[in-house]
């Protein structure tokens, strides 16, 4: 018998009787909590079971359709050890959309609080909204298994049990001051790649961990009645999909080399199993849970079979695949554009003229023309047109291109100069005139709407047809990652006149970035126009970077 059944067993209130012993409306079936709240009215309670319920059986009761896949069984065992006080530090890294938040941030806090209703669990995520969503589900699973809430505090961000323990939730920069916890869960502290790659935001998170989060944890050791130190239930669980090698996991592992290691247990779950020798090495103070799979096996074939994972890998490219799905992010330098990806132009029949469906001259302009200012980057790229039929068409047969073809982009030329506004205008006009003489008139001149860009647009808009302002969304690195899979797949090729871009790209993001940014703007614009011209939507596998 659970605590919730004791309320229904009480006699229904008699409205004509003023006797308080009947319980009144507060203890009637209209009270969804079945709780006297702060009045402390007596209520029958069920006897505590001789053995505490296991996490697995709690999940089966709270979420009957939960899929106990092999990876989940392993994680459940580790979380059970946390709840039993046998494990106090757990790191879990795994691919997106696996179901980690359901297990770690929703079901597990509910189970922990039914085991220890007088203690507190805390949930933190990149936003208060997401942390509240986890807490709301944890509250639901706590109640659906027959456990009662305190009537006076049941808000999703701060709800209490009848024993005055409970759950608190906030964003990673949110207020935990004045509150303590025995179980702390950090789930996806970064909103996306921009946050994880930003040194300022990474440092802000570390400062919050040091000054707020870790200071609210219960002490790991307390003094017993005899004055000796005794272990206290104080656990930390960090679960996330890796974005960057210097993210919070990288920081925690780096701290293990210091004077106060935390001895983390690490469950590292790549989407496709790799040879142990290929996996990142952990500090000697950490314990790595062995992978049960052979190299090449999918992590959860019930949800993501191996053929589907291979499609995702082809679409993401090596950098994001390694970080998001294999949980081994590498330093961005030298790994966004690899030298072996750089290929010569697409082959063509001897003597034939290369035809471009679209040409784009993209420009990344600096703020000023002084010696220490950034470079201006210029890049000319073309979208290859489908080949034209050589045979004379029959009557009624359509002429022209042979139909849709694969996306093929060639970078024809690149240049980098330190220019002020007058020099930029003269250079652009000279380039356009030279291209016109070669029959390479651009369909669009893309100007980033920043720095000197607005002034150039205003000056040349009437003199240069096809000038388009481009809004820079995200960082230069984010745009480079979006283009990198096309280069890796061989869909973007490079003429020898684009060598300055090639040399900058293989060093990116170290050194100059202006040519790469101009190139990325042009490539993304051409790719978008390609799909629009085909009249179809690109085949994009969902779940690529969703959570």
Describe the structure.
The chain has 547 residues and is of the alpha/beta class. Helix content is 32%, strand content 16%. The chain folds into three domains: 3-39, no CATH class; 88-222 and 229-325, Rossmann fold, CATH 3.40.50; 339-387 and 401-534, 2-Layer Sandwich (Nucleotidyltransferase, domain 5). The strands form three sheets. The protein has a nine-stranded mixed sheet with strand order 3-4-5-2-6-9-1-10-11, covered by helices on one side. It has a six-stranded mixed sheet with strand order 16-15-12-13-14-17, sandwiched between helices. A two-stranded antiparallel ribbon has the order 7-8. The chain is elongated and about 90 Å long. Residues 1-47, 389-404 and 538-547 have low confidence and may be disordered.
Offer a few descriptive terms:
Nucleotidyltransferase, domain 5, 6-stranded mixed β-sheet, elongated, single chain, 9-stranded mixed β-sheet, 15 helices, disordered N terminus, alpha/beta, Rossmann fold, disordered C terminus, 547 residues
Using the 3D structure, state the CATH architecture of the largest domain. 3-Layer(aba) Sandwich
Number of helical regions? 15
- Spans of at least 5 consecutive residues whose pLDDT stays below 50 are 1-47, 389-404, 538-547
Separation of the first and last Cα atoms: 38 Å
Strands across the major sheet, in which order? 3-4-5-2-6-9-1-10-11
Biggest sheet overview: 9 strands, mixed
CATH class annotation of the largest domain: Alpha Beta
CATH topology value of the largest domain:
Rossmann fold
């Amino acid at each position: 018998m659970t605590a919730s059944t004791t309320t229904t067993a009480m006699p229904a209130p008699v409205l004509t009787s003023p006797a308080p012993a009947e319980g009144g409306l507060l203890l009637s079936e209209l009270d969804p909590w079945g709780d006297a709240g702060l009045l402390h009215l007596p209520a029958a309670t069920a006897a505590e079971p001789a053995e505490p319920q296991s996490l697995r059986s709690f999940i089966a009761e709270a979420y009957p359709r939960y899929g106990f896949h092999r990876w989940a069984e392993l994680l459940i065992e580790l979380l059970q050890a946390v709840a039993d006080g046998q494990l106090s530090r757990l790191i879990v890294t795994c691919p997106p959309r696996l179901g980690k938040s359901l297990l770690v941030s929703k079901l597990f806090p509910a189970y922990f609080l039914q085991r220890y209703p007088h203690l507190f669990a805390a949930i933190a995520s990149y936003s208060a909204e997401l942390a509240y969503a986890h807490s709301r589900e944890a509250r639901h699973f706590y109640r659906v298994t027959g456990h009662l809430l305190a009537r006076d505090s049941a808000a999703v961000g701060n709800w209490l049990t009848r024993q005055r323990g409970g759950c608190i939730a906030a964003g990673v920069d949110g207020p935990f001051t004045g509150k303590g916890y025995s179980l702390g869960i950090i789930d996806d502290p970064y909103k996306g790649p921009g946050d994880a790659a930003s040194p300022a935001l990474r440092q802000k998170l570390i400062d919050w961990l040091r000054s707020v989060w870790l200071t609210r944890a219960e002490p790991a050791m307390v003094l017993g009645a005899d004055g000796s130190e005794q272990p206290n239930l104080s656990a930390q669980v960090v679960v996330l999909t890796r974005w960057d090698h210097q993210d919070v996991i990288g920081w925690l592992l780096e701290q293990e080399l210091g004077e106060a290691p935390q001895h983390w247990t690490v469950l590292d779950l790549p989407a496709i199993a790799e040879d142990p020798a290929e996996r990142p090495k952990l500090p000697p103070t950490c314990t790595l849970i062995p992978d049960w799979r052979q190299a090449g096996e999918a992590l959860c074939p019930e949800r993501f079979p191996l053929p589907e994972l291979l499609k995702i890998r082809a679409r993401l490219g090596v950098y994001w695949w390694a970080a998001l799905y294999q949980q081994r992010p590498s330093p961005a330098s030298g790994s966004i554009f690899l030298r072996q990806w750089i290929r010569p132009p697409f082959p063509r029949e001897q003597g034939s003229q290369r035809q471009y469906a679209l040409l784009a001259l993209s420009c990344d302009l600096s703020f000023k023309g002084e010696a220490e200012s950034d470079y201006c980057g210029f890049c000319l790229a073309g979208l290859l047109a489908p080949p034209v039929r050589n045979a004379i068409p029959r009557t009624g047969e359509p002429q022209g291109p042979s139909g849709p073809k694969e996306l093929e982009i060639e970078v024809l030329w690149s240049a980098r100069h330190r220019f002020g506004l007058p020099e930029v205008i003269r250079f652009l006009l000279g380039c356009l005139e030279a291209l016109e003489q070669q029959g390479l008139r651009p369909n669009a001149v893309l100007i980033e709407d920043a720095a000197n860009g607005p002034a150039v647009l205003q000056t040349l808009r009437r003199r240069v047809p096809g000038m388009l302002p481009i809004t820079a969304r995200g960082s230069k690195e984010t745009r480079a990652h979006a283009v990198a899979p096309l280069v890796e797949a061989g869909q973007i090729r490079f003429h020898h006149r684009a060598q300055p871009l090639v040399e900058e790209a293989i060093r990116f993001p170290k050194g100059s970035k202006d040519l790469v940014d101009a190139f990325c703007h042009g490539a993304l614009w051409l790719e978008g126009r390609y799909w629009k011209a085909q009249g179809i939507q690109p085949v994009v596998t969902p779940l690529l970077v969703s959570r």
